[in-house]
Specification:
- By secondary structure, the protein is α/β, with parallel strands linked by helices.
- It has three domains: 148 residues, 2-Layer Sandwich (Nucleotidyltransferase, domain 5), CATH 3.30.420.40; 79 residues; 104 residues, Nucleotidyltransferase, domain 5, CATH 3.30.420.
- The protein is built from ten helices and 17 strands.
- The chain has a seven-stranded mixed β-sheet.
Length: 372
Amino acid sequence: MGLFSKKGTADTNYLGVDIGGSSIKLVELTNNNGRAQLVTYGYLERSLSGEGSKLIDQPEKTAEMIKKVLERSKVITKRAITALPAPAVFSSIISLSEISKKDLASPKKVTAAVEWEAKKVLPLPLEEMILDWKVIGNEDILKEDKGAKGDGAKIKNLQVLLTGAAKEVVQKYIQIFKKAGLDLISLETESFALARSMVGKDKSVVVLVDIGAVGTDISVVENAIPLLNRSLGVGGLSITNEISKTLNISIEQAEQFKRDLASNPEALGEGKTLPEIIERPIQSIIDEIEYTKNFYLEQPDNKGKKIERIVLSGGTASLFNLSEYFTDKLGIRSFIGNPWARIIYPQDLEPILESIGPRLATSIGLAMRDIE
C-alpha cells in the first residue's frame, strides 16, 4: 500500500529511505529478474546529546543528513520510497456492504464507497487527508461468492483496510526529499514495509515489534497484511536513560554498558536474562505486546486463531538476550528477523549485513516495494 505513487523512468533501482527518530537509514536494491538484489546501503545516527526535536520537523537538517548518506554510500538511483512513522498514520478496517464482484474491477467505484465510509471514522476532514485502501481477502472473494450467483451479486461486508495521513505531514516528506535531490515516487506506512521484509508472503499470524531509538511500534500481521498497529514512546534511548540514571553515569557510558552485556554476563545477576535496570523499561513494551495480542485475538472474527511468533526489528532488537527475554515473558517464540532473507547479496558481506539487518529492516522493505 502506498499513500501516493507516481511513475518513474525505466530505472530498475529503488532506494528505501527510513527517517527514524534519531537516524537516517537507506538501502538501494535493483530488480534482478524479479528478485531484489543489494546495490548499496548506509545509515547515519544523530548524536544522543543532540536536539530533542524530531528529524521530520527539521527539513533542512534532515535533507543534509540524507545527502551525506547518499554520498558516502555511493547511491546510484534518484528514485526513493519512504515511510510515515506509525503514530502519523490512521488505520482502520471498514466494511462495505453495497459492492458487487464486478465493482471490484473498478477502482473508481470502490474508492467512492471507501471514501463514503471513511468520512465516518477519519480523525480529520476527508479533504485534509491522503487515503489508501486494500481489500482484505480479495483472492478468496473472487473465487467464491458464498452462495451468491453472478458478478452482479452484492458482497456482504467486504472488509477493507483503510490507511490515511494528513496532507500537512505528507508535505513535510515531499519537501525533505526535494531538498535532498531525490525523486519521491511513493510513500507508505512503516508497518507494510516491515511486513514485506520480515514476513514476506507467510500467511500465519505474526506480531512484529520494531524497537527504535525513541519509540516502539507493534503490528499484528496476518496474510502478510498489518491489521492492527500500536505505538508507545519507549525505545532504546529510554533504556539508556534508565541505566544512566540508576548507575549515575553518562549517556555515552550507559550506551557502552548495553553493548558490553554480551561479554559481561555477571552484570545480569543469577538466573537473570536481562539486568534489572533494563527490565524496567522493557516491561512497558512487554505489557503493550500482551495488550495488543489479546485485543486482536478477542475480536469475533479472530476466535480460534493463535500468534505463531514474535519477530523483532530495530536497532535495539540486537540487545543481548532480548529475544530470549521476550520468549520467556510472553510464552511465544521470539527472535530477531532477517530482512535479507529474500535479497540477493555477496556472501562475503553476510556477517556485517546480519549485524545491521534489524536497523535496516524498514528501508529494505521500502526498497522491495516495486520489485516483489
